[in-house]
From TrEMBL:
<feature type="domain" description="Protein kinase">
    <location>
        <begin position="125"/>
        <end position="386"/>
    </location>
</feature>
<dbReference type="GO" id="GO:0005524">
    <property type="term" value="F:ATP binding"/>
</dbReference>
<dbReference type="InterPro" id="IPR008271">
    <property type="entry name" value="Ser/Thr_kinase_AS"/>
</dbReference>
<protein>
    <recommendedName>
        <fullName>Protein kinase domain-containing protein</fullName>
    </recommendedName>
</protein>
<dbReference type="InterPro" id="IPR000719">
    <property type="entry name" value="Prot_kinase_dom"/>
</dbReference>
<dbReference type="Pfam" id="PF00069">
    <property type="entry name" value="Pkinase"/>
</dbReference>
<dbReference type="GO" id="GO:0004672">
    <property type="term" value="F:protein kinase activity"/>
</dbReference>
Length: 503
């Protein structure tokens, strides 16, 4: 399947005004590797030795124990040459070869490739089969030279209609994923660029989307199971928020199970709409998310913070406990209206009487229309509901992470915290898929000029459902197949075994 031949081409990641070397001293907080290397410019035969170290994403040269200059390793082209213990760094058609001690070469190469763009994808990985497919990107199962299995997300360059915007968006996604190393978040290992494609190598997660798991559970979920998943999810969100990152698209398709046998061990995936938090609200794409999951302050074009992810997590908790969406609607425009006004229906499937008071209280706080009253992810982790769910079972004061659900006692012994929906399987595909998960009605915001929901700046919080102009707004919101998007949407109507999307 790997037929693309790499050769000398202009990198999509090149920045014309960015030099290869810089003499402006950056913040050098950590020192990962130090050593002596020999330098050689690509257009010169002369060589010289220098002292170097790597600090974060910088390769720094030192002279007389003083800072001399550095190379920003972010998205630089890294190539392993045919020369012994030699690698080449390139940017804007300028390149330098570095030759290190043979015993240290692998260390230098491994550290630099975390930030760089490589070109030897076809030599390093073998594609096995397509796991998911979107408008201009695919997800493959692949085998690396180390014989481990990976998921590879492939972007086709020719599908980038707005090259500058799409390049900046992809660079942002890559930048965020490079900073993340956490058990509950999918990991990015390497990035490659060949003549026609960009390749992101990530974890291969065998459990598939949480979306499919939800659809295949007609018996419903008890509160302990939901608490396990929610605790892991909130813990991962807390980690992201501590790194200054907002995901902005938490939903069942973007939560992947590590194993089909453990529904609580979920990984957050797809950072196509993520960004670094900006208190002034300056983002590459400010208004984004998926109707039915997005926080109302985003739809209302207000300034927002990390709590938009907490709201989306609350929607997931509601769905798992009730078997349906909190927004009971018959059309997309009605969905956006209710989401905009945060009209949560706690009577769905008699939810408020089926779950414990602690669960209901936590739901109402997570789904508060006013983010000031919404808990942060860290605060939510200390809510009494988790103590109630975990302590009677495990006799521990606080929940443990990634506890397999198969060790939980049968729900009959905890009938007081059992939230069963007898029609879970029947209604879930209607209540969720009709909102955002099916191909025919996917209203996930797409990356275009602002990658926003294009929701008009409505003057009143309460919008009349029969507003004659709303169909025009919806046409802008739901441009499903006409605009590119980064999140990879598989064919939702296929059988579950064909929907093992990894990213």
């Amino acid at each position: 399947m790997n037929k693309e031949v790499t050769h000398n081409f202009i990198s999509m990641f090149d920045e014309p005004n960015k030099p290869l070397w810089s003499k402006i001293k950056p913040d050098l907080s950590t020192y990962q590797l130090t050593g002596v290397m020999t330098l050689k410019k690509s257009n010169s035969s002369s060589t010289k030795k220098g002292n170097f170290f790597i600090s974060n994403d910088f390769l720094v040269e030192v002279e007389n124990k003083m800072y001399k200059r550095h190379i920003d390793l972010n998205n630089i082209i890294l190539e392993n040459t045919n020369k012994l213990a030699t690698f080449k760094l390139s940017r804007n058609k300028k390149s330098i070869e570095f030759t290190s001690n043979e015993s240290e070469f692998l260390q230098w190469f491994q550290l630099i490739k975390k930030y760089a763009i490589q070109r030897t994808f076809n030599e390093d990985y073998k594609l096995l089969k397509v796991q998911g497919q979107g408008n201009f990107a695919k997800v493959y199962k692949a085998i690396g030279k180390d014989n481990f299995t990976y998921a590879v997300k492939s972007f086709e360059k020719k599908s980038f209609k707005n090259l500058i915007l799409e390049r900046d968006a992809l660079k942002l996604e890559i930048s965020i994923m490079r900073k993340i190393q956490f058990p509950g978040i999918i990991r990015l290992y390497e990035v490659y660029e060949t003549e026609h494609n960009i390749w992101l190598v990530t974890d291969y997660l065998e459990g598939g989307e949480l979306f499919q798991y939800l659809r295949n559970q007609p018996q419903g979920f008890n509160e302990i199971q939901v608490a396990l998943l929610m605790h892991n999810l909130l813990n991962s969100l807390d980690y992201l928020h501590q790194q200054g990152i907002i995901h902005r698209d938490i939903k069942p398709e973007n939560l992947i199970l590590r194993s089909p046998l453990n529904a609580s061990d979920v990984c957050i995936a797809d950072f196509g709409l993520a960004d670094y938090y900006n208190p002034e609200g300056r983002y590459l794409f400010k208004r984004c998310g998926t109707p039915g999951y997005v926080a109302p302050e985003i739809l209302q074009e207000k300034n927002y913070d990390y709590k938009v992810d907490v709201f989306s997590a609350g929607i997931l908790m509601f769905i798992m406990l009730s078997g349906q969406s909190p927004f009971q609607t018959k059309s997309k425009n009605e969905l956006v209206i209710k989401n905009y006004n945060c009209e949560i229906d706690y009577t769905v499937n008699n939810l408020q009487h089926k779950i414990t008071p602690e669960a209901l209280q936590l739901l109402q706080i997570l789904l508060s229309p006013n983010p000031q009253y919404r808990l942060t992810a860290k605060q939510a982790l200390s809510h009494p509901w988790f103590v109630k769910c975990f302590t009677p079972v495990f006799q521990i004061p606080a929940p443990q992470l990634f506890i397999p659900t198969n060790v939980i006692p049968p729900f009959q012994h905890f009938a007081d915290i059992y939230a069963r929906s007898p029609i879970m399987n029947q209604l879930l595909s209607q209540s969720i898929s009709s909102l955002s998960l099916s191909n025919s009605s996917n209203v996930t915001p797409l990356r275009t000029q602002s990658n926003s929901l294009q929701v008009q700046n409505l003057q009143n919080n309460k919008i009349e459902e029969d507003h004659q102009d709303f169909e025009v707004i919806l046409e802008e919101v739901c441009q499903i197949n006409e605009i590119m998007k980064y999140s990879i949407n598989t064919q939702r109507r296929q059988p579950p075994n064909q929907l093992n999307k990894q990213i």
